[in-house]
Amino acid sequence: MAYYNKTCVVFFLIMMAFFRGSMGNVYKVGDSAGWTNTGVDYEKWASSHTFKVGDKLVFNYDPAKYDVVEVSQQDYNICNANSPFSKYNSGNDELEIITPGTFYYICSDSNMCQADKLKVAIKIDKEKSTPSPPFPADDPNARPCMRTNSGAAAASPLSLGTHYLGLLASCVFALFLH
């Protein structure tokens, strides 16, 4: 029985290291303030992080006041939300980075975007990212930058806990079989 305990623990530790290295980080845009016009410098916030493929961005905000709109660089520069790639308005939007590049997000209220600087450019580092998955080239409306889970529960680095619990349960089950 001691042999199985050792084997299970070693396997569990190896799998933890594997999942830890292959899963991305979770970033709450604006940190504790979230996505709001309360003086957060989103340009400074974004430049203080190195984003990579597999990371997740979480936009938390009051949906009665704010939204998140993905736009082109030109529309970002002039705070124009009339031709968005994507629009999110759940108040808790989770976006998973699936390819390198620079992506631009604004609040569709032009006053909040222009005067309050409620906008952020997210640069995904190519050198620190793994190769991106295949992208369906036949869909003209698809964006190669992000998959979304709008309205998702608050993101947490502990979300990996479900993977670890599954591995632990498998090990415990294996111990009872032997």
From TrEMBL:
Could you tell me which InterPro entries the record lists for this protein?
Cupredoxin (IPR008972), Phytocyanin-like (IPR039391), Phytocyanin_dom (IPR003245)
GO MF term set: electron transfer activity; metal ion binding
Q: Keywords on this record?
A: Glycoprotein, Metal-binding, Signal
Q: Does the keyword Metal-binding apply?
A: yes
> What does UniProt give as the signal peptide span?
1-24
Per the record, its GO cellular-component terms are: plasma membrane
Superkingdom assignment: Eukaryota
Protein name per its UniProtKB record: Phytocyanin domain-containing protein
